[in-house]
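Render this sequence as a predicted structure.
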Amino acid sequence: MTKKVAVIGIGNFGSHLAVTLAHQGAEVLAIDSSMDRLDDVKDKVTYTVRLDSTEEKALRDQGLTELDAVIVAIGDDFEATLLTVAALQNIGVKRIIARATTQTHERILRHLGIEEVISPAVEAAERLADSLMYRGVIDSLELSSDYSIVEVNAPESFIGKSLGELKLRETFDVNLITIKRIEQEPRLLGLRSRTVEKILGIPTPDMIVQRGDVLVLFATKPAISKMCNDSLE
């Protein structure tokens, strides 16, 4: 079933989010008070509506209660975020996701009963810190204070070995979710080739790790750090 979402606030973050959701198959309603910002995305999302999201009546007319989620992606104008969130709650929107730009804003939004608060700057900083602190880490998603999903370049000492030989769970206490591999795929008519990223699916003991592979792991950060450091010794 197609996901239906609305993104309110089409600045840099909101426009990127709206377009990405549309590319991934969602039906996206983009809302902003600026026609210029809506013009930038009108050909990339399903619908665009220009309105003041702090006005409850204007929001009520958009059928937002029928959507799977409404994301409040307004940037620095926190008063507008609060008024918009309050209006959405009054309307009865079933799932509200709000953007916070500071920890204080996050606390206030949670106090208002918003369970899903996103802090893009904080999350980006955490991912950058992980990539700097842990060798080979490309990207990470923190699931809790203890566990993360991380993408790690396959260490050189893993190349050419099977997963059965490496025994990642027993040796490093990490769980391999899958492997991402870059491959060359021929184009139609055999003219040149193109680079594609493939997901190898559920790992099996006979899979051989190749140079350039990206390992997608679920583990604690200390376990991932130990694996990355030990495998380079």
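Summary. The first strand starts at residue 4 and ends at 8. The chain has a mean pLDDT of 87.
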